[in-house]
Amino acid sequence: MPDGLSFPRCYTARDVHAEAPTPVYSHSRISSFANCPLQYRYRYIDKLKSPVEGVEAFVGKIVHEVLEALYADLGRARASSAEDYTALFRNLWRQRATSSLRIVRENMTPEAYRDLGVRCIENFFRQNHPFEGAEVLGCETQVEFNLDPEGRYRMQGYIDRIDRVAPGVIEIHDYKTGSLPRERSLRFDRQLTLYEIAVRDRWAGVKEVRHVWHYLAHARKFVQRRAPEDLIRTKLATIRAIQDIEATVVFPPRPGPLCSWCEYNGVCPEFRPKTARPLPELEPGSLQYRLFPLS
Ligand code: SF4
Asked: Cα(113) to centroid of ligand 1, in Å?
């Protein structure tokens, strides 16, 4: 890890895109550039490893893993109770929680995050048990696809779950452990629209694709569809976003409200915690609190 103080405020590097002849992009990669070009550079060009992991991402990872295990053996899931899967969540939490976890929100504790994960699993189980009415085509399915006929703009992603609910009717499921979306923001969601492009590429005879978001902590489900022109618009906008990234040689920092959650704020010259708190004494193996104010 380079010394944060030695980083310049902006980068100028003309060879930064020489990493691969045809780089493969993802929704999160493009979002990272839109959020902060310097964060993009740290993550995707310099490939800096962060010594900390955000607790929100940690909760999400374990919740996804438990739901993947549930769908891997539906016979067992049908005969089980929600408590069987919340116990699995608690076990994984105990095994994996380390001192590299970072909590930003001052009013939250490790136990509160653990309980949030438990609530997500309970809500999902109670809403969906006995898990019937669809053929599961895949969980955590990796997709790779082109945005253009020549294959110049390549994308990849992992779809949380793909169901066939009727002949030619596919559902793309996405699990969220965070807060509810703002009104209408799902209309402009790029991620599942890109996944629909991938699904239509992979399976012949798809007549309808439904986008299904599960806001697990709130026991809320949202379902939408996209028109053919939405897919074209998203393809073109994503190609334009990739062209912007590839034309960039200067990656300036863009400080904002998300800086407190940025895994590189320990090295970023623009991060200014107003009142960073001293860390409490740690027991071996306990969670590390790193409290920064929300800017
Ligand atoms: S701390 Fe903020 S400005 Fe710095 S790299 Fe992260 S997001 Fe960008």
From this structure: 24
pTM of the complete model: 0.86
| Range of the structural domain that residue 227 is part of | 135-237
d(CA 269, CA 271): 6
Q: Could you identify the atom of ligand 1 that is nearest to the CA of residue 36?
A: 8
Backbone angles phi, psi at 204, to 5 degrees: -80, 155
Q: Which of 88-97, 188-197, 275-284 has the lowest mean pLDDT?
A: 275-284
Above 50 in pLDDT, residue 203?
yes
Same domain for 204 and 114: no
Same domain membership, residue 289 and residue 224: no
DSSP class per residue in 218-241 = GTEEEEE---HHHHHHHHHHHHHH
pLDDT, tens digit (0-9, with 9 covering 90-100), for 95-126: 999 888 999 988 899 999 999 999 999 999 99
One domain for residues 146 and 111: no
Do 95 and 176 lie in one domain? The reply is no
- Whether 267 is in the pocket of ligand 1, judged by its Cβ within 6 Å, is no
Whether 262 is in the pocket of ligand 1, judged by its Cβ within 6 Å, is yes
